[in-house]
């Protein structure tokens, strides 16, 4: 972006739209850790960014307001005000994407307003998750999951269930998917694996597991490919891999919702299956036969489906 492309703060901007998310994603790998956190925060909050201030962004990310200013100028904008003005038209077009759903939602009790707001946040998180599945980064991750010989999956505490579900269902699309229980406490099965033929998927949410961070550090040192599926709170994953997929989990309920993370993992399996094509269908048939052999399932019609 050249200086000639940038209007002044007072210039009419209605016809001067930008794709800020594309700009940010293109720069992600070139940034320092603090800049990566800023970049990820802006991507995650792209629709409300025109209404943020330098201080509010700085507080949310945990950096100084001057860092925010320098980062915005480094992207090629004169100021945060310049950036926000140039975004407003694009963001305005997306307002009300889920309003038709909200209009149908009626709860006749004292919690109606709270539940409506929670639903709005939940639906918005799902919309943003589906948008992730259209990115080049997503395609890169899906390709790696389809082609790498062995996939190791790790999850901790409350996120362990998500990881186990992902590993067990991905195994129906392709072989050699292993959920790592880490019974030895050393992650030896991962550390000793062939780094050129292995990939790790790590699922975790705040508060993040110490073991997960240490494992990510070790995998980076080993140069073993890593995909991280997490929430959007600290953007810690970008320190270890560019293949980070963050879901919006704050929906104003007692616990944050993991629905968006479940959707990320489900869509990733679907993308892998599409890339594998007939191989995925054959693998599904093999798994179905094994399920029948061991009498594992009730309702075999589902396992015999043709779609």
TrEMBL record:
SUPFAM superfamilies: Homeodomain-like (SSF46689), SIS domain (SSF53697). Residues 18-94 form the HTH rpiR-type domain. Transmembrane segments: none annotated. Gene3D superfamilies: Glucose-6-phosphate isomerase like protein, domain 1, Winged helix-like DNA-binding domain superfamily/Winged helix DNA-binding domain. One of its GO terms (molecular function) is carbohydrate derivative binding. GO terms for biological process: carbohydrate derivative metabolic process. This is MurR/RpiR family transcriptional regulator. It comes from Rhizobium setariae.
């Amino acid at each position: 972006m050249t200086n000639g492309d940038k209007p002044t703060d007072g210039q009419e901007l209605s016809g001067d739209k930008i794709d800020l998310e594309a700009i940010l994603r293109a720069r992600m790998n070139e940034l320092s850790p603090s800049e990566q956190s800023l970049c990820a925060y802006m991507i995650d909050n792209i629709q409300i960014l025109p209404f943020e201030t330098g201080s509010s962004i700085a507080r949310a990310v945990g950096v100084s307001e001057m860092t925010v200013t320098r980062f915005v100028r480094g992207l090629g904008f004169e100021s945060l005000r310049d950036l926000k003005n140039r975004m407003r038209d694009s963001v305005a077009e997306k307002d009300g994407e889920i309003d038709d759903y909200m209009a149908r939602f009626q709860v006749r009790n004292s919690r109606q307003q709270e539940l409506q707001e929670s639903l709005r946040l939940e639906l918005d998180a799902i919309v943003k998750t589906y948008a992730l599945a259209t990115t080049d980064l997503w395609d890169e991750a899906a390709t790696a999951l389809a082609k790498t010989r062995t996939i190791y999956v790790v999850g901790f505490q409350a996120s362990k269930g998500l990881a186990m579900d992902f590993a067990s269902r991905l195994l129906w699309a392709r072989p050699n998917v292993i959920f790592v229980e880490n019974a030895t406490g050393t992650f030896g099965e991962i550390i000793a694996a062939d780094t050129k033929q292995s990939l790790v998927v790590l699922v975790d949410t705040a508060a993040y597991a110490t073991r997960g961070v240490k494992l990510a550090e070790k995998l980076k040192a080993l140069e073993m490919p890593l995909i991280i599926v997490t929430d959007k709170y600290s953007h810690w994953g970008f320190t270890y891999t560019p293949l980070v997929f963050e879901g919006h989990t704050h929906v104003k309920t007692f616990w944050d919702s993991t629905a968006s993370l479940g959707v990320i993992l489900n869509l990733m399996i679907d993308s892998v299956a599409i890339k594998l094509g007939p191989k995925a269908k054959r693998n599904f048939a093999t798994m179905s036969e094994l399920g029948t052999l061991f009498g594992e399932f009730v309702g075999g019609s589902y396992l015999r489906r043709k779609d």
